[in-house]
C-alpha cells in the first residue's frame, strides 16, 4: 500500500505541475525580480514568471532599458500557435547580463545561458518559442519584433578551441551575434558565432547561419547549410489586422490559393499593429 500511495502522490504532483505551468507564479515572480533587477526596477515587477522554471545560477543581472512596466516580460509561458505548448520548464543559467528593451515572451522547454562576461539583449516585442537553446558567451542582440521559432539554437561560442595546423593558428571560439528587427528565425535553425542577420530577414527552417549577411537587402530569405541568399522581397505578416483580412479572404474563397496585394500597398502593412 505504501508503494501505491507513493506512486499516486508522485503522479498527482506531476499533474499539478503540468497544470501549474499554465499559471502565474506570484512567489517566484517576487523572488526573481528582486534577485536580478536593480531595486528601482524590481519594485515594478517587470518580469512575470509562470510555472516552475529551473534556475541554475542567479549571480547575473537584468535591466530594462527604456520603458520598465509591470509584467512586460513573461518567462516560461505558453506561446500561442507553437507546435508544443506545455513542454516542460525553461532552464535559466544567468551569470552575465540580460537587457530587456521592451516586451518579451520566453516559452517553455527552453535553455537560456548567459555566461559571466556575456550579454543577451532582447528588443521590444521579441518572442522565443519552445525547445530553443540560447547561449551568450560574449554578446548577442535580438532586435525588436523578431521571432525565434521552436527548436532553434543560437550560440555565440562553440566553447572549444580548434587548432588550425594549415595556418598554424587558433582562433577565438566566440564572436558576437546580431539579429535585426522583424526577423523570423524558422524552426530547427542554428545561428552560430559571428552571424549578422539584417532587419526583416527570414531564415528558412533547418538552416545554419554563421556569417555576416549585412550586405543583403532587407526583406530577404536566407537558408541552407550553410545559409545563402534565396530570395528577396518577402516579409512575415505580423499585423493582426492584415492577417484577419487575409484569413477572411481565404475563408470566402476556398478555391483560391493566392491573396492579391495591391501594387501601391506599403510594406509596413506587415508591421506589428499600433496599440
How would you describe what is shown here?
The chain has 275 residues and is α/β, with parallel strands linked by helices. It has helices at residues 2-20, 26-36, 39-42, 240-252; strands at residues 47-49, 54-58, 61-64, 73-75, 91-94, 97-100, 104-106, 111-114, 119-122, 126-128, 133-136, 139-142, 147-148, 153-155, 163-164, 169-170, 177-179, 184-185, 190-191, 196-197, 202-203, 208-209, 220-223, 228-232. A nine-stranded mixed beta sheet has the order 1-4-7-10-13-18-21-23-24. It has a seven-stranded parallel beta sheet with strand order 2-5-8-11-14-19-22, with no helix packed on it. Strands 3-6-9-12-17-20 form a six-stranded parallel beta sheet, with no helix packed on it. Strand 15 and strand 16 form a beta hairpin. The protein is globular, with a radius of gyration of 21 Å.
Query: N-to-C terminal Cα separation, in Å?
Result: 58 Å
Residue windows where pLDDT falls under 50 for at least 5 positions: none
The percent of residues in helical segments reads 10-25%
The total count of helices amounts to 4
Give the mean pLDDT. Answer: 90
Structural class by helix and strand composition? alpha/beta
Main beta-sheet strand count, sense and barrel state: 9 strands, mixed
Report the order of strands and helices: HHHEEEEEEEEEEEEEEEEEEEEEEEEH
- Indicate the radius of gyration in whole angstroms: 21 Å
Secondary structure elements and pairings:
Elements: H1 2-20, H2 26-36, H3 39-42, E1 47-49, E2 54-58, E3 61-64, E4 73-75, E5 91-94, E6 97-100, E7 104-106, E8 111-114, E9 119-122, E10 126-128, E11 133-136, E12 139-142, E13 147-148, E14 153-155, E15 163-164, E16 169-170, E17 177-179, E18 184-185, E19 190-191, E20 196-197, E21 202-203, E22 208-209, E23 220-223, E24 228-232, H4 240-252
Parallel strand pairs: 1-4, 2-5, 3-6, 4-7, 5-8, 6-9, 7-10, 8-11, 9-12, 10-13, 11-14, 12-17, 13-18, 14-19, 17-20, 18-21, 19-22, 21-23
Antiparallel strand pairs: 15-16, 23-24
Amino acid at each position: 500500500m505504501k508503494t501505491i500511495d507513493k506512486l499516486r502522490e508522485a503522479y498527482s504532483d506531476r499533474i499539478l505541475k503540468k497544470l501549474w505551468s499554465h499559471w502565474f507564479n506570484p512567489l517566484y515572480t517576487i523572488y526573481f525580480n528582486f534577485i536580478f533587477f536593480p531595486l528601482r526596477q524590481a519594485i515594478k515587477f517587470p518580469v512575470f514568471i509562470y510555472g516552475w522554471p529551473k534556475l541554475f545560477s542567479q549571480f547575473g543581472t537584468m535591466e530594462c532599458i527604456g520603458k520598465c512596466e509591470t509584467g512586460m516580460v513573461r518567462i516560461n509561458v505558453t506561446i500561442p500557435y507553437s507546435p508544443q505548448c506545455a513542454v516542460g520548464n525553461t532552464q535559466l543559467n544567468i551569470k552575465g547580463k540580460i537587457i530587456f528593451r521592451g516586451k518579451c515572451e520566453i516559452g517553455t522547454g527552453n535553455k537560456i545561458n548567459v555566461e559571466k562576461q556575456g550579454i543577451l539583449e532582447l528588443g521590444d516585442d521579441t518572442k522565443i518559442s519552445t525547445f530553443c537553446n540560447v547561449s551568450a558567451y560574449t554578446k548577442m542582440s535580438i532586435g525588436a519584433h523578431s521571432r525565434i521559432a521552436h527548436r532553434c539554437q543560437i550560440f555565440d561560442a562553440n566553447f572549444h578551441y580548434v587548432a588550425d595546423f594549415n595556418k598554424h593558428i587558433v582562433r577565438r571560439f566566440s564572436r558576437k551575434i546580431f539579429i535585426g528587427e522583424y526577423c523570423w528565425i524558422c524552426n530547427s535553425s542554428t545561428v552560430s558565432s559571428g552571424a549578422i542577420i539584417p532587419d526583416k530577414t527570414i531564415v528558412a527552417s533547418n538552416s545554419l547561419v554563421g556569417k555576416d549577411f549585412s550586405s543583403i537587402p532587407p526583406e530577404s530569405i536566407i537558408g541552407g547549410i550553410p545559409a545563402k541568399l534565396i530570395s528577396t522581397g518577402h516579409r512575415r505578416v505580423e499585423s493582426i489586422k492584415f492577417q484577419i483580412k487575409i484569413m477572411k479572404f481565404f475563408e470566402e474563397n476556398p478555391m483560391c490559393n493566392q491573396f492579391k496585394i495591391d501594387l501601391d500597398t506599403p510594406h509596413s502593412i506587415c508591421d506589428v499593429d499600433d496599440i
